Amino acid sequence: MKALSPATLPLILKALSLPTFAREYAVVAAQAAREGLAHEEYLLALATQEASERAARRVERLLVDSKLPREKSLETFDLTRLPPKVRPTVALLREGAFLDQATNVIVFGNPGTGKTHLVCGLGLELVRQRRLVLFAPTFQIVQRLLAAKRDLRLAAELKRLDHYEALILDDLGYVQQSREEMEVLFTLLAERYERRSVVITSNLVFSKWDQIFKDPMTTAAAVDRVVHHAVILELPIPSYRAQAAKARSQAAPVAEGA
């Protein structure tokens, strides 16, 4: 076998798309020599670093693609505010198995109760497990679908959204509710039925979804598809924003007196 110049190795590793190998092989080789590692142990150390960094890069790409606000994590969410019966369900959902059964998650609560923060935190947990997630306010998704329908590419847009294992539709109750908007939203829910998960936040309970879908039969069909395989979380808790504002107002006189 013809001997190759050591300078050739980085070029080969780059061609094989092994950037961590190329960057670290000399450092790890020196460490292996000092510690008397076998060739297999040296190779394992390099391969482990390559796999770890490759996984981190993939998670970063998925985070960017998800459009999730990174500050809204479960680490920054006060889970003690959740009703006791909701907490174990959230703990189960963060494991991600519900995506494999195309189970939906619907979170009901008044404005300010932390619905968006909670589902974003769950979404970030799923992305860290390398699951495909997309977050968007419902009205933005609806407008995208309307534009696609006008351009005769609705099927292509639905196929693109089907790429995501979890589609987080935030604030379902704020859709503008024209007939065209209702139709594309219903089409989206129908397309994902029993195939892909939707995660929905809404301040409108199911009995008020006729405000979104207008037609009683369409409303019933939409609710039926959403709840058939679903986990429903209700957050009958005070508004976090209202509580924070009250705390600030109560603290203000003390600060002035000080």
Account of the protein in words:
- α3 (39-66) runs antiparallel to α5 and α6 runs antiparallel to α7.
- The model has no long low-confidence stretch (mean pLDDT 89).
- This protein folds into 2 domains: 8-64, no CATH class; 67-243, P-loop containing nucleotide triphosphate hydrolases (Rossmann fold), CATH 3.40.50.
- With 258 residues, it is of the alpha/beta class.
- The radius of gyration is 25 Å and the shape is globular.
- The protein has helices at residues 8-15, 19-35, 39-66, 87-93, 115-128, 138-150, 154-161, 179-192, 210-213, 216-227, 240-257; strands spanning 104-109, 133-137, 166-170, 197-202, 230-235.
- Helices cover 55% and strands 11% of the residues.
- The protein has a 5-stranded parallel β-sheet.
Total strands: 5
Give the CATH class of the largest domain.
Alpha Beta
How many structural domains in the coordinates?
A: 2
The CATH architecture of the largest domain can be given as 3-Layer(aba) Sandwich
Query: CATH superfamily of the largest domain, called what?
Result: P-loop containing nucleotide triphosphate hydrolases
Oligomerization state: single chain
What is the alpha-carbon Rg in Å? 25 Å
Name the shape in a single word. globular
SS class: alpha/beta
Order the strands across the largest sheet as they lie in space: 2-3-4-1-5
Amino-to-carboxy terminus distance:
82 Å
Write the CATH fold name of the largest domain. Answer: Rossmann fold
Element order: H for helix, E for strand: HHHHEHEHHEHEHHEH
